[in-house]
Amino acid sequence: MDKSPTYLSDASPSGSIGSISSATEAINDFANLSLEDQERQREEWRTELQRVEEEINTLRTVLSSKIYHSTELKRKLGVTVWKEIQADVSSGIKNMRDTNVYHKTESVLKTTAEKTTSLFSGFSTKINQMKNSESFKTFEGKVGGAYESVKTKVSTSRSGSVQSFHDVLDSNSNTAATTPIHEEKQVI
């Protein structure tokens, strides 16, 4: 049987530990290593960290170069930041419209609009029916007649007498209550 020490980085190719139990095992394994093996493991980690950081820097350089090249191509094609934003917004709206939540919301809004429209339509119909009723026409005639009577008395009282508006209104309220006055409507 081979008794060579197993290092923590040997557990997975990327050196990452997937779960809490495996992390606990790794800590226990490291603690069970001899001081010499622990130092060897640390040195291996340092070497691996240096290699990973170099790869990251290389990827950053390549990515930066690719971004610059992409920007130049977009500039040559006339693709502006504004056009990209518009495309992103259009795509986002399309994606949103494809979702189930959008369809449910749209359905609720349509139903609400239909109910509101029918409510106001019914209300408007009731108002028109009320306007066409005999009692409303009688009331409208009395109010219109009283208004015309007061207006006539105030305008004639200004021409010669010193009668106030309230006096005219009081004297007219007695007249309007007892006799209906029909109003002649002017066409404007």
TrEMBL record:
The keyword Nucleotide-binding does not apply. Keywords: Coiled coil. InterPro entries: TPD52. Residues 28-62 form a coiled coil. It comes from the Eukaryota. GO terms for cellular component: cytoplasm. Belongs to the TPD52 family. This is Tumor protein D54.
